[in-house]
Design brief:
There is one protein chain. This protein has a five-stranded antiparallel beta sheet, with no helix packed on it. Strands 6-5-8 form a three-stranded antiparallel beta sheet, with no helix packed on it. The termini are far apart. It is an all-beta fold and 143 residues long. Strand 5 and strand 6 form a beta hairpin. It is built from no helices and ten strands.
Length: 143
């Protein structure tokens, strides 16, 4: 007889860092199949340094829910990433499966920190990069 499942705590500083990355978006996992008994969810923290952005990417079949814990965010999407939505601390966002997007930190001084949940897993498919100038309103620090 197998042992029953129990809650599993991932302590601060012990998160799994073997996650897929997208340029300036750094992901760490708190709950994932890689280090917990989870089989249908990925839950972690995504950070962007001041003024930095992710590469264009999508999350395959995964549905993604995000929460802006700290900072000012912009998600670019649509043809040529010409559309965008802005978010701030306390805002939630849903990103549909297979939707190409770019996540940007719109502050040049403060980190952007997201809490992100994805089902069934942390699928990250990086796409060809685009020039910063093609993203409306985005300016990389020092540019």
């Amino acid at each position: 007889m197998s042992e029953p499942l129990k809650p599993v705590v991932t302590r601060a500083g012990e998160e799994d860092t073997r996650t897929s990355q997208s340029g300036g978006a750094v992901r760490i996992s708190g709950v994932s199949p890689q280090h917990t008994p989870a089989t249908r969810i990925w839950y972690g923290k995504v950070s962007n340094a001041p003024g930095y952005r992710s590469l264009p990417h999508h999350h395959g079949e995964a549905e993604t829910g995000g929460y802006v814990l700290r900072g000012r965010a912009r998600i670019y999407f649509g043809p040529d990433y010409a559309e965008y939505i802005d978010m701030r601390e306390g805002d939630f966002v849903f990103v549909p499966p297979f939707m190409p997007h770019v996540e940007a930190n719109m502050s040049s001084t403060d980190d952007l920190v997201w809490l992100t949940a994805r089902t069934p897993e942390n699928i990250v498919v990086n796409l060809d990069d685009v020039p910063d100038a093609s993203l409306p309103g985005y300016v990389r620090p020092g540019a």
